[in-house]
Design a protein that fits this description.
By secondary structure, the protein is an all-alpha fold. The protein has three helices and no strands. Helix 1 runs antiparallel to helix 2 and helix 2 packs antiparallel against helix 3. The longest helix has about 160 residues. The chain is rod-shaped, with a radius of gyration of 79 Å.
Length: about 240
């Protein structure tokens, strides 16, 4: 707008200079002749015409300048809107990228969390398995110890029973042997008395009595040998079981 006014001022100055030059020339050429009113009126009309033309040009310049400014403002507004759209698009892209990055980071964190949870679960399972295996081994050791103790206790009980049986058997054998010896002694005593009584009897009676006595003695001797054999057999059985145990 300022440039248009400056251009208009320069145009008016040039025009005024031309008129002054023309007036000077006319005054010089008139010299002697006096300018009449018709010439003045023509010049006045010519000045008004020039002035009107300048005003029209100035108006056109002003309208052009306003139009150019309007176009420039519109272009600037369009550019601003385009820049705003681009900035908005950039912000949206940046926001979307940030969201995607955050989603990716959250996925990585979730993946890492699951891996850590799985590792912890595997660690717990291994620890539980190790504890179960240890408990199983300890239980087997305890059972084995109890089994060995039970074997020793059973062997001890068996040994005590065998010893007791041996002692009882030997006691019974001794008692039987003493009983046999006692009966033998009693029988011999009775035989002795009977012999004394038989001495007064007939020889036949003595022979029969002697025969019976010998038979009885033989039976007693046989019984004694059987008891001794039985006792020896029982001793051998007990000794054999003791050696095997």
């Amino acid at each position: 707008m300022k440039s248009v006014i400056q251009k208009s001022g320069h145009a008016r100055a040039n025009s005024s200079g031309s008129l002054m030059k023309s007036g000077t020339e006319k005054e010089g050429s008139a010299g002697i002749v006096v300018t009449d009113s018709a010439m003045l009126d023509r010049e006045r009309k010519q000045l008004e015409k020039i002035k009107l033309k300048q005003q029209q040009e100035l108006q056109q310049m002003m309208e052009y300048e306003i139009k150019m400014q309007t176009l420039q403002q519109q272009n600037e507004e369009k550019m601003k809107q385009q820049q705003d759209r681009e900035e908005k698009h950039k912000r949206e892209l940046l926001h979307k990228a940030k969201q995607q990055e955050e989603a990716k980071r959250q996925q990585e964190l979730e993946k890492q969390r699951k891996l850590e949870e799985e590792a912890e679960r595997q660690k717990r399972l291994q620890q539980e398995m190790a504890e179960k295996e240890k408990a199983k081994e300890e239980d087997e050791k305890r059972k084995e110890k109890l089994r060995q103790q039970e074997i020793k206790r059973s062997e001890e009980e068996q040994r005590v029973k065998q010893e007791k049986f041996r002692e009882q058997t030997e006691k019974i054998a001794r008692e039987q042997l003493l009983l046999v010896e006692k009966r033998k002694a009693e029988m011999e005593e009775r035989d002795k008395k009977r012999k004394e009584m038989l001495d007064v009897k007939q020889a036949k009676s003595r022979k029969e009595a002697e025969k019976k006595r010998k038979e009885t003695v033989q039976k007693l001797e046989s019984t004694k040998r059987k008891m001794e054999d039985l006792l020896e057999s029982q001793r051998e059985v007990l000794l054999s079981k003791a050696r095997k145990g």
